[in-house]
Amino acid sequence: xxxxxxxxxxxxxxxxxxxxxxxxxxxxxxxxxxxxxxxxxxxxxxxxxxxxxxxxxxxxxxxxxxxxxxxxxxxxxxxxxxxxxxxxxxxxxxxxxxxxxxxxxxxxxxxxxxxxxxxxxxxxxxxxxxxxxxxxxxxxxxxxxxxxxxxxxxxxxxxxxxxxxxxxxxxxx
Amino acid sequence: xxxxxxxxxxxxxxxxxxxxxxxxxxxxxxxxxxxxxxxxxxxxxxxxxxxxxxxxxxxxxxxxxxxxxxxxxxxxxxxxxxxxxxxxxxxxxxxxxxxxxxxxxxxxxxxxxxxxxxxxxxxxxxxxxxxxxxxxxxxxxxxxxxxxxxxxxxxxxxxxxxxxxxxxxxxxxxxxxxxxxxxxxxxxx
Lengths: 173, 189
Fold this sequence. Notes:
The complex is a heterodimer. By secondary structure, chain A is an all-alpha fold. Chain A has helices at residues 7-14, 20-32, 34-55, 62-80, 87-109, 120-131, 135-138, 140-144, 152-156, 164-172. Chain B has helices at residues 7-15, 19-41, 44-61, 71-90, 120-126, 128-138, 142-152, 157-164, 168-188. In chain B, helix 1 (7-15) crosses helix 2 (19-41), helix 3 crosses helix 4 and helix 7 runs antiparallel to helix 8. The longest helix of chain B is centred in the first third of the chain and has 23 residues, at 19-41.
């Protein structure tokens, strides 16, 4: 066929889709072209067959179809919900937390008694003794000969000793 | 009695997650969507799933409907695109074989089945001529098949162009070529 045949416009023409100008042009062509008239007719015949084919598609069970659609939509909405708003995520988090707590309790119950370190004040005292100047103890012989009780009598009669101020007054008088 | 809401009004309600409006739209479009998907895919199970997926997309993106086209055109665009994508995915392995055509190009000719064994259900339930047409449609490219099925279903060339994302004149070419190919195939069988 030559390019002057309006083949592509034949179906739109038959379906009334063309503008007035296009329609007039195709009509004029069809009056003198049996080949295009036959082509238009056979093309519309094929479209009718296709339409029948589509119409004969078996109907689905629409109630079941809509129930399934609702389920899919609900699942999709759930999947798109942020995790922190999902009940599933929260229950998983709570479960995980409980499991960790139970594990920690179990470990602490079965743990061997811990090494008991000496109290801090004892450690401090030991350090102090070590650091102290123990020169006298090192020279124990000197210490041994000290008469620590040489003033014992004075100490024994300490309650009978007049106060220091009174002693001063007596000396002055 | 309240006047029936238009599809566009229902869609606006769906945008604000009105489930009743959604149910109403599903009831209006379920049969046509399923028929169209089934004819494009040639498979009832896939048509069932994909038409439901199209409704889910509708629910999720109703707010994007801007009213530039009719609701019907907008919704069928979602549906037909899902069908075309599904066909691309299902044929990925055939791209690995020599002498295969379609690949990612929806305008490329469809892949001729290696065997022409009839599907028992289709042949038994719908008859020989239905099976011949089914086979002939399977040979078309996804765009040609979608275009000719939509044309037969009463869509205008302009609507087909909008659904397929091409111009009206390209849509006419798709329909013309599809019809020519169907004539040829149906004469051969």
